[in-house]
């Protein structure tokens, strides 16, 4: 045998051994992974649960091998419209004009490239297909979201991928239409007061009039920060009024809560606010749910001082609206700081879309949706209080990676301002934080540029989306008595039924909901009761890859039982209460 033939024989033998290892030995590896996943999964989920439009719960565990993830063929067929043809040694999976054929478990003419798996696996008599094959040959886009509690896949068909990005994954919304709903102080019913913060935008000389001009619209309100102990900012408030708006004052007890007392300073501050005779939104001690304020971590003292400030304002400045304002995260501490409905006029939340969290490149957060960052506060409080977005900003440059992210800012600003009036009718104010923090923030916080006036493309995105009449430039004098509520994110479809977290039925439909046992909830309304079967699912929170659990109950079954009028319109459910 020649030396060349000997080398060729050795290479061929080595290739066959590797291929044999992939086909024969590796199934044990993938089976161990699948078995491990299966043992850790909560049982009882079905492959036809869907939430957020295209995220599906799988019946069979996800497999993994050599960096590729595997989905069972029964799950793939249940979720998508693929068809299969099977002969003794041949399997063809097809979707419309696309197909992939396996002969003896392998794709023909596959080159065994590192980025492609050439074969499927048979585990316990069931075929598992690699995601790469589904994407490359059938055109689907797949993402897996596996953890110990869920077994979830996102699959988008070629048709879904072709949709416009801003119309993608909005999900369903439940609207509740109610009559004779009392309005809070100065609350609009036809739209959202447009607001901003420009006191640190040196590009426009900190001018509210210039901001109105360059954005093409008069803003109804502007805000500024005032440290507790400083006098009420009369001169600035009069400038706001001259610019056609009314003030929001972010009043912060930065020396701690002990300085807040019913004394001459507090009374004078309130009297000065009352003398203006215009609406004043008072954002007292905001973002208390975090760890970064001087009044965080003291919920009982916080509520005590809040009530004190509320009572003084009610007596001395009835034109003041008390805004209780949190940060969008952490969610777990929000409720403990709530002073009570009788002490709060508006509930607010500050939201920022940053490219990275905490100035850490490993904490990339470009996926976060500003609407979903709003959902927790909105769903929890909008049934009883109108909502304010006290601050909003989108990063267009960050020192974390030293790069410009103009398109990111444009997409997030558009997403927020385009859909807010349509999907969140209980939002009554929104303020854009027009600041370049690289210049104006304190040391340690010079990380992101949020300014919109420096770059024409970003300014245009903002201007284009605030043109609608739903963004208001002045106070609404005679608000309507009817009001529309909405509820998003905490709902899903299971086996053709719409399930909504029991919170919605309790808070928005005023029904009594009690858990009888794990298999039964009792829903009572007007002296009658109904037993329903719940379904539980865990979904991703809006940020930090955390999970939230939805305790869903079948909404349409409840509405029909109590004779409540409802109808679907363009995929959304409207309830007439």
What's the short story on this structure?
This protein is an alpha/beta fold.
N- to C-terminal separation?
89 Å
Strand content: 25-35%
Rg over C-alpha atoms, rounded to the nearest angstrom: 28 Å
Helix count, per DSSP?
A: 14
Largest sheet: 8 strands, antiparallel
Number of strands: 35
Summarize the amount of helix as a percent range.
25-40%
Structural class, from secondary structure content?
alpha/beta
Overall mean pLDDT stands at: 87
Q: Indicate the low-confidence ranges by residue numbers.
A: 1-8, 10-53, 163-168
Tell me the strand order in the biggest sheet.
11-12-2-1-27-28-33-32
Shape: globular
Task: Write up what this structure looks like.
This protein has 577 residues and is α/β, with parallel strands linked by helices. The strands form 7 sheets. The protein has an 8-stranded antiparallel sheet. The model is unreliable at 1-8, 10-53 and 163-168 (pLDDT under 50).
């Amino acid at each position: 045998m020649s030396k060349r033939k000997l080398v060729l024989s050795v290479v061929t033998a080595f290739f066959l051994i590797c291929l044999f290892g992939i086909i024969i030995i590796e199934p044990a590896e993938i089976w161990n992974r699948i078995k491990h996943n299966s043992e850790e999964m909560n049982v009882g989920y079905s492959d036809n649960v869907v939430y957020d439009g295209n995220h599906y719960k799988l019946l069979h565990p996800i497999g993994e091998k050599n960096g590729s993830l595997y989905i069972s063929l029964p799950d793939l067929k249940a979720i998508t419209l693929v068809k299969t043809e099977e002969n003794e040694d041949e399997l063809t999976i097809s979707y419309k004009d696309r197909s992939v054929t396996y002969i003896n478990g392998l794709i023909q003419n596959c080159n065994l490239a590192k980025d492609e798996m050439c074969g499927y696996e048979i585990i316990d008599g069931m075929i598992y297909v690699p995601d790469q094959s589904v994407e490359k040959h059938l055109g689907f886009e797949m993402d897996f979201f596996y953890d110990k509690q869920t077994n979830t896949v996102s699959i988008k068909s070629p048709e879904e991928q072709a949709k416009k990005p801003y119309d993608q994954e909005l999900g369903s919304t439940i609207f509740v239409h109610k009559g004779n709903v009392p309005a809070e102080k100065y609350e609009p019913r036809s739209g959202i007061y447009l607001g901003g913060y420009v006191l640190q935008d040196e590009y426009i000389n900190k001018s509210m009039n210039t901001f109105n001009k360059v954005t093409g619209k008069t803003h109804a309100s502007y805000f500024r920060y005032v440290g507790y102990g400083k006098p009420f900012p009369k001169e600035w408030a009069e400038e706001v009024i001259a610019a056609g708006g009314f003030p929001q004052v972010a009043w912060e007890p930065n020396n701690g809560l002990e300085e807040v007392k019913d004394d001459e300073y507090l009374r004078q501050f309130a009297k000065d606010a009352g003398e203006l005779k215009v609406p004043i939104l008072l954002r007292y001690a905001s973002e208390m749910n975090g760890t970064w304020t001087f009044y965080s971590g003291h919920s009982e003292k916080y509520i005590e001082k809040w009530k004190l400030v509320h009572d003084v304002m009610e007596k001395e400045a009835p034109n003041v609206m008390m805004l209780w304002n949190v940060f969008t995260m952490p969610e777990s501490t929000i409720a403990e700081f709530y002073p009570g409905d009788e002490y709060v006029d508006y509930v607010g939340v500050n939201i920022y879309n940053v490219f990275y969290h905490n100035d850490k490149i490993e904490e990339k957060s470009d996926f976060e949706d500003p609407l979903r960052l709003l959902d927790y506060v909105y769903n929890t409080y909008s049934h009883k209080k109108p909502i304010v977005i006290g601050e909003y900003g989108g990063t267009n440059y960050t020192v974390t990676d030293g790069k410009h992210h103009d398109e990111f800012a444009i997409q997030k600003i558009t997403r927020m301002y385009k859909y807010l009036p349509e999907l969140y009718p209980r939002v009554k104010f929104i303020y854009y934080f027009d600041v370049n923090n690289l210049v104006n923030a304190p040391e340690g916080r010079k990380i992101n540029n949020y300014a919109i006036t420096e770059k024409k493309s970003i300014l245009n995105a903002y201007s284009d989306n605030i043109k609608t009449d739903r963004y208001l430039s002045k106070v609404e004098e005679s608000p309507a008595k009817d009001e529309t509520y909405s509820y998003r994110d905490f709902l899903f479809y299971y086996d053709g039924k719409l399930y909504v977290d029991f919170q919605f039925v309790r808070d928005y439909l005023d029904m009594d909901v009690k858990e009888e046992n794990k298999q039964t909830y009792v829903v009572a309304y007007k002296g009658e009761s109904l037993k329903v079967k719940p379904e539980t699912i865990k979904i991703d929170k809006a940020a930090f890859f955390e999970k939230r659990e939805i305790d869903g109950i079948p909404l349409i079954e409840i509405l029909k039982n109590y004779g409540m009028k409802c109808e679907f319109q363009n995929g959304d459910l409207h309830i007439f209460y």
